[in-house]
Specification:
Elements (H helix, E strand, L loop, with lengths): L6 H8 L8 E6 L4 E6 L6 H13 L3 H14 L4 H16 L3 H14 L6 H13 L10 H16 L4 H30 L3 H14 L6 H15 L2 H14 L4 H11 L5 H6 L6 H9 L1
Antiparallel strand pairs: 1-2
Helix pairs in contact: 2-3, 2-4, 3-4, 4-5, 5-6, 6-7, 6-8, 7-8, 8-9, 8-10, 9-10, 10-11, 10-12, 11-12, 11-14
Length: 286
């Protein structure tokens, strides 16, 4: 994205005395916080943009942001302002100023919905949320936002490189959300709140079927039904687990558990069934 021209060389030399960075404070929120801004020195848009890009090449993202913002401030209706807006969003992302990056990318989309760089703006919003995903023990609001933003990239630009990467990130995001459901379900199971636990485990099987959590969720459902004394339901769930994951350690655990109640899951799994039986059973159970 380096929009370099020969103009940069001569203009930079001519303006060298004026390009010393002078930072002034801009008071926000009653003066408690300070937001850096360059002192206003009128310059051509291209020159300011190239100064910003020099900072990018030096990984000086904080100062690059100031120059990109200055392009917009001095030349808001120029083509350079449009480029600077998106670069400012990216520089904010690199400095982990996620809120600013998201807000700037959203502003770009609002002002330039048909621009060729708009797909990247959507993707940038998604990875801002994605990079804030924490462990499953914390609130997952950001993970939900990441999932929605990634899905939007895939839906709007399904054949793009951004969509291909978004699909990979969606897998981890959904596994993370499923992991949160599993953590809550296990807690309920330990507290003998089986009905609440069953709701969580069913949600994993129904909404996050392709994640790594599904096998355990099915086994935990078997455990929950057994602890409630509903062996018939435990048998059905166990047979679904065995049909889909016959070599799973979780299936082995369910098999051993139900053996103590006179249930042979292997026999259930290997019975001759009509076409579509297992799909219909899953739909009924979950």
């Amino acid at each position: 994205m380096a929009f370099k021209t020969q103009y940069k060389q001569t203009a930079r030399l001519a303006m060298i005395g004026l390009l010393t960075i002078m930072v002034s404070g801009c008071s926000v929120f009653g003066g408690k916080d300070k937001k850096e801004r360059l002192a206003y020195i009128e310059r051509p848009a291209e020159l300011i943009y190239n100064e910003a890009f020099d900072r990018v090449e030096k990984n000086d993202w904080s100062r690059a942001k100031l120059y990109f913002q200055e392009v917009e401030r001095q030349h808001p209706f120029s083509k350079w302002a449009r480029r600077a807006m998106l670069m400012n969003a990216y520089a904010s992302y690199r400095t982990t100023d996620y809120e600013e990056s998201i807000a700037t990318a959203q502003r770009f989309i609002s002002l330039h919905p048909g621009n060729e760089s708009t797909p990247y703006a959507y993707y940038l919003i998604a990875i801002n949320y994605y990079d804030q995903i924490y462990d499953v023990g914390r609130d997952q609001a950001t993970t939900v936002s990441a999932e929605a933003a990634l899905q939007q990239v895939v839906r709007r630009y399904p054949d793009s490189d951004y969509a291909r990467d978004a699909r990979l990130k969606l897998e981890l995001t959904q596994d993370h959300l499923a992991g949160k459901e599993m953590a809550i379900g296990r807690y309920y199971l330990r507290e003998n709140q089986q009905l609440a636990a069953i709701g969580r485990f069913k949600n994993v099987v129904k909404n996050y079927e392709t994640t790594s959590q599904t096998e355990e969720a099915l086994h935990r459902l078997v455990e929950s039904y057994v602890s409630l004394g509903i062996i018939s339901e435990a048998k059905l769930v166990g047979s679904v687990l065995g049909y889909n994951y016959p070599n799973s350690e979780w299936y082995a655990d369910s098999y051993e558990l139900l053996q103590g109640y006179g249930v042979d899951l292997e026999a259930e799994r290997k019975k001759n069934r009509r076409d579509g039986y297992w799909q219909r059973l899953k739909e009924r159970l979950f």
